Structure formats: C-alpha cells, structure tokens
Amino acid sequence: MTAIGRMQLVLFITLLLITLTVSSSSSDGETLLKPGDSGPKVLALQGDMHKLGYLSDAPTGYYGEITWDAVLKLQEEYHLNPDGIIGQETNQLINRLVSSLKVTEKEVLGFFVGEEPSIPSSMDTLRAQKDKITSISPFWYRLDRNDPGQLETGSNVTREEMDNVISFDKQNGIKTYTLVHNLLYGKSVIGRDVVHAVLTDPDRRRELVTNIFNLLNSRGFDGVTIDIENIYPGDRGLFIQFLAELSAQLKPSGYTLITCVPAKTSDKHNGGWGDNFNYHEVGKYSDIVAIMAYDEHGSFSKSGGPIASIGWVERVAEYALTKLPPEKILLGIPGYGFDWNVDQGSSRYLSYELAMQTAHRFEKSVTWDSENKVPYFNYLDNNGHRHKVYFENAASTAAKLDVVKKYNLQGIAIWRLGMEDPGSWPVIAEKL
Known about the structure:
- By secondary structure, the protein is an alpha/beta fold.
- It has 2 domains: 3-99, PGBD-like superfamily/PGBD (Muramoyl-pentapeptide Carboxypeptidase, domain 1), CATH 1.10.101; 107-431, Glycosidases (TIM Barrel, Alpha-Beta Barrel), CATH 3.20.20.
- It contains 14 helices and 17 strands.
- The protein has helices at 3-21, 40-51, 65-77, 88-99, 123-128, 159-171, 191-199, 202-219, 236-250, 279-285, 310-320, 352-361, 394-406, 424-431; strands at residues 25-26, 29-30, 107-112, 135-138, 141-143, 151-153, 175-181, 223-227, 256-262, 288-292, 329-334, 336-341, 346-351, 367-369, 374-380, 386-390, 411-415.
- The strands form 3 sheets. Strands 3-4-7-8-9-10-11-17 form an 8-stranded parallel β-barrel, surrounded by 5 helices.
- Helix 8 runs parallel beside helix 9 (236-250).
- The longest helix has 19 residues, at 3-21.
- The radius of gyration is 26 Å and the shape is globular.
C-alpha cells in the first residue's frame, strides 16, 4: 500500500470510529447514513451514486471506504462540508440530482426552431420535456449565400434566444448541437448552388471547417449537426471530403459531429436527392447519423398520404442497418403533418394542434389507418374543395419507437419540437 493509501485508510478508520460513537448529526443536519452502516438504505445510496457516476463498483450494502470516497467527491464538487457522511443536505442533493436524470435510456434529440406562422417556438416544449430530451439541434446557422465559407443566422434568430437556450440546456444537462444547413434562402438563391461553391473550393471548405470549429468554441456548443440537403450528384464525393476534414478538426477537441441524411430504402437511384448521400461513407466520419425518416409524402405530393407509414419506416431502418451500426443511427421522427387540397394540388404544413383544430372546425372524426399506423381525416372546405390530412400522434409515434427498440438504434431525432402531439412524451419515456 502506498503512503497516500495508508493515510487514506487511517483517516477512514478514524472517521469510522467517530461516527460509530456519535449518533447526533453531521455538519449538514441529522445523520442518515455513515461509514460502517449496512443494509437496504446503503444499497439504495450506492445505486444512486452509481447512477450519478461517482461509484463504479457494484453495490454491496456496506458503507465502506469506496462509498465514503464517492460521497466525499460529491460533497467537494458541490461545495458541501466533505465529511463523507449522508446528512440532510447531502441527501437532498443526491435526491435532486437523481430526479434530474433523464428518464430515457436512448438519445432523444429535438430539432429546435423559433416561432413560425401558426406554429409556436420549440422553447415551451424544451422546458416542459427537459427530463426526456437529451439533446437539441437549434436551427440557427446556414451557409452564407454570398460567401459560403462563412455562416449566417436566420432573419428571425436573435442573440437573446441563443443565450437563453444554451444557458437552459447547460442548467438541465441537455447537450446543444448547433445546426448548419443550406435551406430557406428564397427563390433567388438555390441551396445546392451555395453548397457547390464551398465544396468545390478547397480554401473555402477549409474556411468553413475553421468557422464551424470556432463557433463551437466561442458559444459553448457540444458539437454540430450538418443538415446539408439537395446537393448536385457531382458533389457527392466532395461532401464526404468536407465531413472528413470537419471530423479531423472536431474530434481532437471532443466535439460531436452529427450528419442528417434523407431516408431511402435501397441503393437504387430513383432521381431523388437521397441518391447523393452514401450512408456508409457519411458514417465513417460522423459520430451519429440522423436518418430523416419522414416526408414519405410531403409538400411535393399532389394527392397526399402518410408522412411516415410504419412499413416504410421499418424498411428505411433495415436499409440503414446494412450501411451503419445501430449505435450510430438516430431515427428521424416526424411531429408534423400536411393538409392537402387535392383539387388544387396544394398543401399546408401543420402541427398536431393545427390538425386537431382543423378536424374540429369541419366536424370530422380522426380515423386510424391500421395498416400504416397513422391518423388521418378527409373534409370538404368552404369552397367545396376536397382535402386529405395526414399527421402524427402519440399512437403513430409509439409504432415508430417500437422500430427503434426492435433494432436497438441509438435513439430518435424529432422534427420538430413544438409541433408534436404532447401525448407523445409519456410514450417516449415509457418506450425509450
């Protein structure tokens, strides 16, 4: 035994003798547990300390030196008197920390968006579900349209919102992966042209990698989510090169790299933008790959249909598993729906709440599609136009969570917080 070990043992024995003869209280109130105790209460304490990461050994039911060391470390980190005894204050701290632990075992990433027309900000959901959400990706940054090596923020994103969200996440143990995208420039600028400009220029690519790294450092993010969509076929290899360069920059500093990819069910090219994303190559450089398993039917559809039917979602997961290990896969879960005007060929993007308001307004009952495991309803509007509404609710979410469990995927990525059925959250807690 080393000299330090002997000193620690002597200190422990001395403390044990004191606590065996003193039955009054510790420095933070009445003594509830002390070195030398044994039994179910000690087992419970050891279980809690294990959950909190202070105790790696298996619970024994005996309050010995290892448990004492763990309690001392906790007390020191939270600026309590380091006596190794469980008094009222230490006990309250442990209970508070344990109760704040996430109730899900899987990753639950939520895409965070500010307020949109008819759709609330994601903030209320983040606050309400902080015990279930493990991470968020705020939709804040995109490639600068005029200088793609730089980043620009959306027009409705404020510094105050950023500060509030990042601070809230840190206080509640939620990781924040900022999101970089190439969307919503308007008709004058096409997102894939912006990406092409940066991918084809090694200097701009290097500049973009450096700017992302500096952003993570300066704002205290835990990593980045790359949501680059609709690239040119000729840029497929360059996109992978960009991920390789970004990964090489981020990994030594411990940052997480998440890459979003469109859903597909095979290697067969069908002319969609998913053709240009190679899951296997993306997975080489990404810590996590978020498969966007939604928009089976979207705004592009004329007659409408499920946003993500269960059969299609399962085929997406099965294909992904031929290219990626399950621990790298987040299954994208939709929280939204579409209201298609079948006669006019147009559509309206809507949340669960808006879908239910529409059903109520036109006095329609929601029907359950048992084959696709999604809710829907049809109605005639005031102009006599036929509408078809497909959306998501707690039951359809439950079916998709069963796919996550069946294939032991890493977790889910929800698009987007604030649009989902609030009843989905108890289901998420139960199933994940």
